[in-house]
Write a structure and sequence with these properties.
single chain; about 70 residues; alpha+beta; 3-stranded antiparallel sheet; 3 strands; Lipoprotein; signal
């Protein structure tokens, strides 16, 4: 029983530490690319998000999900 409590406490502390040492900012974007010539017209829609992550002691990281 004591071992189970210790494991739960360690997991809880790890969760708090990981939340407290980093921050995230999510930027959603919707792009529309258009093109045309005398023979054709086109429209291309792209939706996605970019995630900026800052952790203590590390440079900012960027991840794109399109």
């Amino acid at each position: 029983m004591r071992r189970n409590r210790l494991g739960c406490f360690a997991l809880f502390m790890l969760l708090l530490f990981s939340i407290g040492c980093g921050s995230r900012e999510v930027v959603k974007h919707n792009y529309v690319y258009k093109g045309e010539t005398p023979n054709w017209t086109a429209e291309y829609h792209v939706s996605g998000q970019g995630v900026f992550t800052k952790k203590t002691g590390r440079p900012m990281d960027y991840e794109s999900r399109s």
